[in-house]
Amino acid sequence: MPKSHTTEEHQNNEEVDRASKIEVAQVDLDWERKGELFVARWAHETSGHLGRDATYRWARDRGVDLTIEAITQVTHECETCAAIKKVMKVKSPWNMGRWLGFQYHEAWQIDYIGTLP
User: Structure pTM?
Assistant: First the structure.
């Protein structure tokens, strides 16, 4: 076997070794955490966006083993829950600073007909 062929093969092997080391280093090894977050997201959505504690109870009652940390992360990242919280915290001038579940244009009005006391 010629010396140049051996050197070329050796260089190719070293290049492949370097590429494989880079590829292995870039692989995400946190697949267990991602799996737990996926199941926590499913449990949160299936239980009806009820919040952290209710989602935890719902999952536990059905035999799904989830950590409270995973459920907390999922509920904080949930866009549906964020939209619900935004609507629930709208203050309007006539509700005396109380948090109500309706927005400014959705308030009810009752007209009193008759004599005032």
Answer: 0.53
